[in-house]
Backbone:
């Protein structure tokens, strides 16, 4: 994996400093939701995307590879809630796309098909 | 990959629960395509005297760590395995973990059987399908599978298996058994709606 060397350090002293103190994300994002950098996110330089190095890091991390919110949080050593606020802001600015997990509620065919895909994927391991 | 995209990009998750030191991260690491990662969640709770501004330092912050791994099922379908926080008192995190999960593996050390009671209670309360996997440390099994089922007071339709959390093949088979169990339960529900 290509990971920028300049990793933000996740200080737990003031974890929400990088979000300007905001603790509520603009949209809820599941812990396993997948994040991918958009063409717009890829094209923007650090300044033009209006973010700091955390945003830059996320744009690079999710460029051409799907990463869950949990992975972003872990690789940046930022608490989950902080990563969620950052990613939600970036999605609102069109810098990343978010793919929410499929619902397994009820007995619908979509959920059953997903489970069958997971099952055959596990069997191929 | 094996076949073209069957639809939109999506993910799924399976929860790995069990007592502290039972081998959850070992199990996750045995099949994960990445070295297990750790994500942390913070819960801040106000002290008792919330209206007393002089008592601001009364706030307490708790950090909960969760280890997880990843399996790419297809280029557009990623399965995550999340280990539950060691202490079951962090229920706020369990809520988030079980939401939308396929099901759970309850990993059991028969020398400390009681460590998994809280997890089983939680999954039954949430109606999250689960199976019990008895981790056989060093190939030893200290109890018969049926004894474990009885000791845990779980119904006969909950699968109970022996496993070796260090073994990729064993973990793979445990996960396959869980997904098969979930599919079976869905079929039963479809035939006889509750």
Residues:
């Amino acid at each position: 994996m290509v990971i920028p060397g300049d990793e933000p350090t996740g200080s737990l002293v003031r974890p929400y400093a990088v979000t300007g103190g905001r603790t509520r994300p603009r949209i809820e994002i599941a812990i396993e939701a997948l994040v991918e950098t958009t063409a717009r996110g890829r094209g923007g330089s650090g300044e033009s995307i209006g973010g700091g190095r955390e945003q830059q890091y996320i744009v690079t991390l999710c460029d051409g590879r799907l990463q869950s919110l949990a992975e972003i949080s872990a690789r940046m050593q930022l608490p989950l809630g902080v990563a969620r606020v950052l990613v939600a802001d970036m999605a609102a600015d069109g810098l990343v796309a978010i793919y929410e997990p499929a619902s397994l509620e009820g007995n619908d065919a979509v959920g059953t098909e997903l489970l069958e895909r997971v099952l055959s994927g596990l069997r191929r391991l | 990959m094996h076949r073209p995209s069957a639809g939109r990009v999506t993910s799924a998750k399976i929860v790995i629960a069990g007592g502290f030191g039972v081998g959850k991260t070992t199990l996750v690491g045995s099949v994960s395509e990445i070295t297990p990662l750790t994500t942390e969640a913070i819960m801040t709770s106000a002290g008792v005297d919330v209206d007393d501004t002089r008592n601001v330092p009364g706030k307490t912050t708790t950090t909960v760590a969760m280890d997880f791994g990843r399996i790419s099922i297809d280029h557009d379908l990623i399965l995550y395995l999340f280990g539950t926080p060691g202490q079951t008192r962090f229920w706020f995190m369990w809520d988030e973990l079980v939401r939308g999960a396929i099901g759970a593996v309850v990993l059991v050390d028969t020398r400390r059987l009681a460590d998994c009671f809280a997890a089983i209670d939680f999954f039954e309360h949430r109606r999250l399908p689960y199976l019990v996997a008895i981790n056989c440390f060093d190939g030893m099994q200290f109890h018969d599978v049926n004894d474990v089922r009885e000791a845990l007071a779980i119904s006969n339709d909950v699968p109970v298996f022996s496993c070796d959390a260090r073994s990729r093949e064993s973990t793979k088979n445990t996960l396959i058994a869980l997904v098969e169990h979930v599919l079976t339960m869905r079929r039963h529900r479809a035939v006889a709606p509750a």
